[in-house]
Amino acid sequence: MSAAELTPPEAAHWAARAGLPLPAERHAAAAATANHIHAVVAVLRELDFGDTPPAPAYRAGEERHDAAV
Amino acid sequence: MRPYELSLTAAADAIRTGRLSPVELVDSVLDRVERLEPRLNAYATVTAEQARRTAREAADDAAAGRLRGPLHGIPMGLKDLIDVAGVATTASSRVRADHRAQADSTVAARLSASGAVLVGKTHTHEFAYGLTTPQTRNAWDSGRVAGGSSGGSAVAVAAGTAAFALGTDTGGSIRVPAALNGVVGLKPTYGLVPRHGVTSLSWSLDHVGPLTRTVEDQALVLAVLAGHDPRDPASLAVPAQDYRPGAAEDLTGLRVGVPRNYYFEHVDAEVEAVVRRAVDRLEALGARLVEVEIPMTRYIQATQWGLMVPEATAYHERTLRAAPELYQADVRILLEAGELMPAGDYLRAQRSRTLMRREWARMLEDVDVIAAPTVPATAVPSGQETITWPDGTVEAVSDAYVRLSAPANLTGVPSLSVPVGHDTAGLPIGMQLLGRPLGERVLLRVGHAYERTRPAREPAPAARRVH
To answer: CB A61 to CB B438 under 8 A?
Structure first.
């Protein structure tokens, strides 16, 4: 287990801080799933975003208006 | 041919010319529902009485020469995330047991105004958060998954218990079950079809679109669904269009991108062979094949999860605290774990999407469409959780099913899944056509041209066995 991974008590702590108290029997599964999700999304840290803005909502066609062929 | 077997286009033509009454058509479909539903379980709710009543009104109108358009009297299923006034939107979840929709969603209102007849609400993987729809059975083999999350919609269309249906698609949820059940599924351009009144999984990735038996049928439904609605903040203001593909089969001059990476990796050999044969057929119709390099593939799953996981958790914030035990185990744990994702991860996914959209727009300058498999494998047996690829890699079934469809959700580009054949077990295989934003007409033209080179599809055999 890497230092970045959450232990079951840590998962319970952070969930409680997010306003979701988890019963004890769910701590291990929540930690395991959160660690799996973290491992998947962590690769995004490799990207150099520079000035790139986020795209919370966007227009799919904004870059081009000549989609018709 | 019995009425329920007709494609939407054929049924509409028969109604328009007075050869078929909406009552005959709806009765035929409801009879089919009664026979097949005990085994398929595609519907969460069947609104038979209301359907017969609406069909009679449609028949009276047709007899008086008042046709509302090509969907007049056509029986449809709506995924049970789509609000219909007075009917429960259960999202196939116990969380929604006492639900009753107060008003029509935009798409339900538009379909109703166009004369379509609601047969019922189709099953979804609970709240669309999954790729199998475990309560529904595949139309071709009842021992296999329906795919999801719009599993009920795809099975109903394949089995003839609806002439068309609507699904929603956040990572592939229209196209995956369409491919696994041998029907046509379209995820339109992000924002083309308004989502007002449709239960969200992930606002920035959700789309609503049709499932039909033919590509031509898609055009008739899309024309009714598309159009601006300010109540959906992503809704695009685009002029109304005629999406019908026309009779021309010639694809001369069209550039079809064939991915040299990603879309044919970890893909079942039979799926690859059938899809490549279909691509060759596009070439035979005059298209020019152009190799393309799919950008940023290492970041597709990370970006999808980085957006979907926290957005889904946010949507369910209240009920996850009030009644967590009502969720199925697979959905509950994802919603809980979503509480633990930092905002920084979500923003990185947002910024990654910006980059990915730019890269895709650049790639799509060189080709008119991209052709690829919709899913890397056909329908797996119910209960199977992983796929082992020949190199020993083990992949979760849900990860595999969503892998090739998610890029269109991230970039917002339209994507059409068309049936292109079967594996040796007789299970359907889908080819995905991806286009430029608002390039639906091109996708439907290509899909239709391909479709015309093939004999008419037979109904799904699991459905055929019952008479």
So the answer is: yes
